[in-house]
Write a structure and sequence with these properties.
This protein is α/β, with parallel strands linked by helices. The protein is about 25% helix and about 30% strand. The chain is built from 3 helices and 7 strands, in the order E-H-H-E-E-E-E-H-E-E.
Length: about 140
């Protein structure tokens, strides 16, 4: 059974434009954009004001638990221009960024890595722009 993810209409529009831009200016990026394109195709699109507060959207700050290593990780899911690993800001174009988009609190994300699959449980959403009325981030 495929998972059901949610995405705001605004995020989907911005991400589709980002994919087009990346393909145009970075032809080598086509391969890693495929999984993001697939996520967007499968996603249920919801108006920003109606997205559930427990869904990871763009610019959300989330608490994840690595079920294999039994450690907690905090990331903000951002657009590439805002990515900064030192500040735990992960680009949507990074594999883990694409993997967590649209998941809900309590879900387990299967993140494919070179050595196999890492299971990340969404423990909490520490900040979601839509939940606080920030619809234009």
């Amino acid at each position: 059974m495929e998972r059901k993810i949610y995405i705001t209409s605004a995020d989907k529009e911005r991400l589709e434009k980002l994919i087009i831009k990346e393909k145009e200016f970075n032809p080598a990026s086509k391969e890693y954009l495929k999984s993001l394109e697939e996520e967007l195709k499968l996603a249920q699109v919801v108006p920003s004001k109606e997205i559930p507060q427990d869904v990871i959207t763009m610019n959300s700050k989330v608490l994840l638990k690595d079920l294999d290593a039994d450690e907690e990780l905090t990331y903000s899911l951002v657009y590439p221009a805002d990515a900064d690993l030192l500040e735990d800001k992960i680009s949507i174009l990074a594999p883990v960024g694409t993997a967590i988009l649209g998941y809900r609190v309590g879900d387990v994300v299967n993140w494919k890595v070179p050595d196999g699959v890492v299971q990340l449980k969404v423990e909490n959403i520490l900040y979601q722009p839509e939940a606080t009325g920030d619809y234009d981030l």
